[in-house]
Amino acid sequence: MTNSATTTTTQRRRRPARLTALAASGLGLLVGAGALLGAGPPAAADEAGAPAAGPGTTAHCSLPGRHWTAQARVDRARTERFAAYGNSGVGWTGGDSTYSVPLPGHRTVWLFSDTFWGLVNADLSRPTTVPFLNNSFVVERGGALRTVAGGTPEAPDSLVPPDEPGTWNWLGAGQATPASLDVMFLEFARTGPGPLDFGWRKNKLGRFDPDTLRLRDVVPMPSAAGVQWASWLLRSGGFTYVYGVEDLGLTKYMHLARVRGTDLASGRWEYWTGGTWSPTETDSARLMPGVANEYSVSRWRDGYLLVTQDTRELFSSRILAYVGCSPTGPFTEAATLYTTPETGAAGSYADADIFTYNAHEHPDLRRGDRLLVTYNVNSLDPNADLYDDVTIYRPRFVEVTLVPDRRG
Predict the structure, then answer these.
(1) What range(s) does the DUF4185 domain occupy (predicted)?
(2) In what order do the strands lie in the sheet with 239-247?
């Protein structure tokens, strides 16, 4: 495994399974319970909302009782930085997920799942022979970007390659610990010959050297409840809270676990049941519907802020903010932070196949009440659109100011 930002001339074609499958993992529109390889967890008593705050959590704050106003604008500096780097063809040229983790040395590491690598044509198309990876990093430092991937510059590979043929690993949220950069991963596998014949199989933790970003180890994570424990990691009150998603296709549910301290590998996991914490993973309850596969929950003012794409609507362009007083919720819808302009035939690409997904916030890049929110852009016809136009399959960066309005 090498750190690389070198143009590759590799002439091999990897069929981009995630993209060919209509990006079904990102939206969950076409991959439902029948495609999952694990059994689903039990439903909570009230699936329409979240349970009350539990033992040891902050039950009261000012956020839910206020009215909020959001003002958004494109973060042009970071958008142009990633566009220029992606167009240069020296490594990463597009990807999704778009998590971020601050590291020592004034570095921010951006975490990407499916990744296009290498040559970009002058007309901003890409050759069909460019390498396609399932996970990668891009390190930002002082306005400069570089790609970190596995393999070699001539034959790049995913940072966490598959364990066996017919499987792959997409990443989730990460965190810096005193000893390592820890990133949650989701293993998916083929279940048949069709483009939609695949499903989630298990959760993993990738541990990376914080200086070199080389992979040290891959550790199995809890996977018995049908929950993908990779949506978000939140440190609060001496715990690391691990947010997950129960993906049933058209409906997705938030779940929550926690570990005391920061060691997800050796710490004892507990699961929120809707009223207390249990050591049994299958006791995990549904906190609320409508979240995406990826979302964020962070400390904000005197409570907590949830940012997610609205999955209650098919191909929704709305990025929503919810507020609550505890990591367990309940979360109250507060505002529409942004409406993505790329979506659908009326969008900026004038293409009915274009959709947006998996928005979340980056708390470490916040400036007061100004939030940095990212989301991903993809196509239902990826083998045409994503090769014809490299600008589609890249993150969008939006600054959002969220403040109480006059009623608040």
Answers:
(1) 225-342
(2) 228-236, 239-247, 252-260, 269-272, 277-278
Look at the chain and count its residues: 408
Domains (range + CATH), the chain: 16-404 (2.115.10.20)
Cα–Cα distance between 227 and 39 in angstroms, integer?
A: 9
As a whole number of angstroms, the distance between CA 370 and CA 186 comes to: 31
Confidence of residue 43 (pLDDT cuts 50, 70, 90): very low
List strands edge to edge, sheet with 318-324. 296-300, 303-309, 318-324, 332-339
115-134 average pLDDT score: 97
Supply the DSSP string of 163-226, one letter for each residue: SSTTEEEEEEEEEE-SS-EEEEEEEEEE-SSSTT-EEEEEEEEEEE-TTT--EEEEEE---SSS
The residue written with tokens 């790049």 in the block is: 156
- The per-residue pLDDT for range 339-383, each reduced to its tens digit, is 999 999 999 999 999 999 999 999 999 998 899 999 999 999 999
SS3 content of the chain, % helix, strand, coil (to 5): 10, 45, 50
pLDDT score of 256: 98
Q: Within 10 A of 352 (CB to CB), how many other CB atoms are there?
A: 15
The answer on pLDDT for 17 being more than 80 is no
